[in-house]
């Protein structure tokens, strides 16, 4: 059975853009005609539950948040709007992403990656990841896993570093990245770093039995990679296998 994606949107250009992008990015999906009003959305959702919803916030007869007060919505929602002040409310109402108009195909792809990460985690042993889709400004490219030196979480961002020293932005969490990597080659040393075995240049024991890991290529100069006392035994066992 194909996945059903519902578009709740009163602006024709936005609805048409979404349908066009989805036909490229999710060609197998069933995308019914867009719904432009709160009333029609409530009528539809009272009898049918899609797998994913793209929902504009300002509709022809009111704000779409009122839909959640009238019917039960189980599907994840990707909100679309021209305004940025509704993000908190959106994430309280099934929101998994918040796209500002005008959006493009890369915005939709990023949101779909979040959705697919929720419903389809990658079993590490059966289907190890082979590559990552990364961003650099407005450009996107794929990086083979064999070229990855380490992953670094910084604030709300996650970066992929290659052995060439290049850095790319990833639209994933560190925990999601770890699920698709071969466990014999990559190790999460702390809450900010997953490192490849060959990126480890040197390990220095510090106070309280913590370990300082020197990487090649190195992370930014102001960042030190530390393995806690609690993680150190498992980390050393991983190194020695």
Verbal overview:
The chain is α+β, with helices and mostly antiparallel strands. The protein has helices spanning 12-25, 38-45, 67-70, 87-91, 105-119, 174-179, 232-239; strands at 5-8, 52-56, 58-59, 62-63, 77-81, 95-100, 131-136, 139-144, 148-154, 157-162, 167-170, 186-188, 193-196, 200-205, 211-215, 225-227. The chain is elongated and about 65 Å long. The termini are far apart. Residues 120-127 have low confidence and may be disordered.
Overall pLDDT, averaged? Answer: 86
Largest sheet data: 5 strands, antiparallel
Determine the CATH topology of the largest domain.
Answer: Rossmann fold
Number of helices: 7
> Spans of 5+ residues with little confidence (pLDDT < 50)?
120-127
Regarding CATH, which class of the largest domain?
Alpha Beta
**Beta-sheet strand percentage?**
25-35%
- Distance between the ends: 44 Å
List keywords for this structure.
single chain, 241 residues, alpha+beta, Rossmann fold, OB fold (Dihydrolipoamide Acetyltransferase, E2P), 2 domains, 4-stranded parallel sheet, 7 helices, 25% helix, 31% strand
